[in-house]
Amino acid sequence: MQEKREEWGSKVGFILASAGSAIGIGAIWKLPYVAATAGGGAFFLLFLVLTLLVVMPLLIAEFVIGRGSGGDALQAYKTLAPGSKWNLLGKLGVVGASILFSFYSVVGGWIITYLIKAISGGIAGQSQASLLHDFQVTTANPWISVGATILFILLNVIVISRGVVSGIEKMSKFMMPALFILFIVLIIRSLTLPGAMEGVAFFLRPDFSHFTAQTVLITLGQAFFSLSVGISVMVTYSSYLNRSVSLPQSAISVSLMNVFVSLLAGLAIFPAAFAFDITPDAGPGLLFVILPSIFNQMPLGLLFFIIFLVLFLFAALTSSFSMLEATVAPLMSSGFSRKKASIGMGLVIILMAIPSALSFGVWSEVQIFGLSIFDAADYLVSNIILPVGALFIAIFVGYRLPRELLLKEFTTSSHFGKKIFIVWLFLIKYIAPIAIILVFLSATGIIDFFF
């Protein structure tokens, strides 16, 4: 028997869970570095504008699909466009969420591994060169890499199996405030270091000389991918939403929180890096090589590095909850209990994740179009599935759904009236598709071929 469809316990719970889904590892280790090297404060101004004008309308679109249908990523399109092929968009989202969760869990496993290393004192006192070697050895070890990946997936299964309110919402209400508190602690510590203000200046000083067409495309890509619209995870989350919540206001809250976390990450990282004359790079090396080498040089540095790892773990988990939920919900609609669906999808994701986990060691020679298994999975989701999914979501909402349904969902429990609705609809129908196509052409290198 199909279980009764759940609802979020509160508006705050939905916003925190949605923000947690958006605020992932990339917002902390990639976006601040891109900002610092692409115009600082000028980048953030452009990033904020593009987020509000291009990405947030798409987020609202996914909210509209989810609450308007009351169904998961597969059921939603069947309900809103019965007898059509639009359900393929939901299937693309579920496949995308599965692949994304599979390689994302590998990084989640690394965070758990390094948290154990840090607590046990295995990182203290190491030089940057030594930390780099340790990271390469650790990620190449199949037992550690696969075991930690499975542990990260199991943590997700436990939370998702407990349900929307008792699992996702409960953990998000704890993890998201804790994430902000940990950031504040780290920022205070970073800003009190000698030379910290040079790092703040590097990170936030506006530099409009970077405003080229390529920089705008990079910023647009960052804004687009930062909220992970396109794989219908927010369709699933919003399907549990009652009609007392404003969709536009929720989207604004989620979008602004995502930008704010990126600012906090930069203020925690760059002052500390400049205090010890180290320029932080983006990607895994930042977390597992550069940051520990910085913290090893300051009093109580190991404690602050542990705090940073806990913060990263919370960010990783709140993002991955939405990925697993998007794959579990369709199984529940098919009649499986939440517990069975969670365990079943957990096992499927483990099988999918193992090749990515092994691609840094025993399967490092396996190449797919010149990329490792991990990088190929990342490329497929980030550069193809996400933009294609987002483009068709914009087309579906802008051209396929009845205007009456859109207006009803947009204005319900909202301070925004018909005039703002018309602006949003214009952005969805015309601006968002053009922006998505440009991002897709840039990300796949096609635009570089012509220019």
From TrEMBL:
Record key words, sorted: Membrane, Transmembrane, Transmembrane helix, Transport
Compartment(s): Membrane
The protein's name: Sodium-dependent transporter
Recorded superkingdom: Bacteria
NCBIfam families: Na_transp
InterPro entries associated with the record: Na/ntran_symport (IPR000175), SNS_sf (IPR037272), YocR/YhdH-like (IPR047218)
CDD domains (alphabetical): SLC6sbd_Tyt1-Like (cd10336)
Organism: Listeria seeligeri
Membrane-spanning segments: 12-29, 41-65, 86-112, 143-165, 177-197, 217-240, 252-278, 298-321, 341-360, 380-399, 420-447
Membrane topology recorded in Swiss-Prot or TrEMBL: Multi-pass membrane protein
Predominant location: membrane
Pfam families listed in its UniProt record: SNF
